[in-house]
Specification:
It is a single chain. This protein is an alpha+beta fold. The protein contains 28 helices and 20 strands. The protein folds into five domains: about 150 residues, no CATH class; about 55 residues, no CATH class; about 120 residues, no CATH class; about 190 residues, Hypothetical protein af1432; about 120 residues, Isoleucyl-tRNA Synthetase, Domain 1, CATH 1.10.730. The strands form seven sheets. It has a five-stranded antiparallel β-sheet with strand order 2-3-1-9-10, covered by helices on one side. A four-stranded antiparallel β-sheet has the order 15-17-18-16, sandwiched between helices. A three-stranded antiparallel β-sheet has the order 4-6-5. Helix 17 packs antiparallel against helix 18, helix 22 crosses helix 23 and helix 25 packs antiparallel against helix 27. The protein is flat and about 100 Å long. It starts with a strand and ends in a 10-residue tail after the last helix.
Amino acid sequence: MSSRTLLIELGTEELPPKALLKLSDAFTREITSGLLGAQLITESDAQQTLPYATPRRLAVSTGNVLPAQPDQVVERRGPAVQAAFNAEGQATPAALGFAKSCGVEVEELERLKTDKGEWLSYNLVEKGKTLEVLIQEILAQAIKRLPIPKRMRWGAGDAEFVRPLKWLIVMHGNEIIPATALDITSSNETRGHRFHSQGPIAINNADNYESVLLDQGHVIADFAKRRQMISDQATEAALSVGGTVEEDTGLLDEVTGLVEYPSPILGSFDDDFLDVPQECLVSSMRDHQKYFHVIGKDKKLIPYFITISNIESKNPEQVKTGNEKVLRARLSDAQFFWETDQKSTLESRIDRLKSVRFHAKLGNLYERTKRIEALAGELAAKMNGSVTDAKRGALLAKADLVSDMVGEFDELQGIMGHYYADREGEPSIVGDCIEQHYWPKFAGDSLPVSNEAQAVALADRIDSFVGLFGAGERPTGDKDPYALRRAALSILRILIEREHSFSIPEIVKQSVNIYAEYQSYVIDSDTQKDIVEFILGRLTALYQSQDIARNTINAVMACKPEVPLDFEHRVKAVHAFNDAAEAADLASANKRISNLLKKQKQAISSDVEPSLLSEDAEKQLFNAICEIESECTDLFSNGDYAQGLNKLASLRSPVDDFFEHVMVMSEDEAQRNNRLALLKKLQSLFLQVADIALLS
């Protein structure tokens, strides 16, 4: 069968630029997976699949796609030969029925010999389905599985997609494959650039898709190539004025998702604006205008910006002037807000937080601020930080939310508070608390530096957890409107990476007490347990992101550690232990012990009576345990789980000998219970770290 390139293109109205790359990756993955599952391509072909994505299209090109599945030889097994023929050698109804189901005579059946006897069999050849038959379902499933939070409808039909579908290409080599998606029928016609191309463009062969779009459509279809082109253009433009462009993956991806044929324009703004904090200017350029800002050798802003146009203008100077005019208005606003905000202090804004509702059941931001202040002071004391600075930072932490600057540029919350605090003569640590209590803002982001800032950051998140869980606002499924999953990971990271031995139930209880004291808001014990379980439950996601095996995490989780830093020490020790030569045998032995103990109806003590030990193997195991028990317990008490597990690894040989030579479930009840007690004693040693049985 002749294999050729398969091209699928979904032509749409402008797709969301921030979601374009994610949509493209998912579409490519689903189409490739469908073709692999249908045996139309090989794994090697799948790795060569080319994704295409522009504001108006999602496309996939896969080489060496077969026109149909390979024929399959299916072996059908019939009745045993003994049951297929009678004593005279005549075919029984069982043989006749099997032959008929295969569409052949009994004489045409084969005989299959196995270890369990001889059987009638027949090899059927199933004809492979054609690409034309299979592609419809592959395409439908790929569209259905795209990560689209909210689909839209258009026209009078029932089709739903992220944006209205305008055209569809499904081609195998130079042939159009009949297919339908979202009420659109496939053809070989695409569309080029919205302004630099007119009318449909015919694709004569799937292999020519990218070049035809570029030559006739003025479209660079490859997202990665377009992205690199934009990066190079911005870098070159910045160099022309002696500057550089800061790396900003998010902005680069978004701009790539906005244009089909990038054209750079270098603009400038007045030097006077540089008196405004740099973050305000960057926010105006990056977040509001999608401009790349330019920095000098000292890493400070210089008065230039780069915009990437989707049009090759005949009058680029006019486009530049227009962009400069728009930016000037934005920067003038920022300058005005900066100057106006300085007429009031942060402290004078605290009262205004009373008019800002946090949650209908949890009061306003002023009340929330007072709770955070109280909790931050308690946490800072335990961290040996300055209680005064932590409480001051917490008191002022939300004040910039009612400033004009943050009201216009909400992404500057905390940052502006830091600037204002510094200008008002607050201690530098207070400014750090205001800005850094929002850290980390995303996965992998920096953590608050000082103990005081960490105390405010923890207090802010714990207060949210306690209040929102109490108000019934728990995350469900994929819904997490208050980002509590992210908040939980932030709490864990701060406690673990900054090495604070705080118990989660303890700090939750502190927050609960503060709610009761400040607002008479009662959170019941069941809700408190739910909060603790939720936060500690995120440890699984945290360590899986570090490539720690799930069974290792579960082994530690089984012991229910409530101090995240302690969990860290345990899981890293068990992770290392899992690679030891003794680990597999000891894990298997612990699993066997666990199963034996679970079957006992009465409680088993771990107190062993030495006089009842009769076999050499059980005596040796008892002695080996006694030799290291005290030392291991001391090591575990000090959090040295790795060294403790190394000591326990020395028990591998006596444990193996015990199970090889000792009958645990002896008929003598006293002896049986004593041996179970010995195993319980062994298990208890391991359970000071983790349930090693779960490693098996």
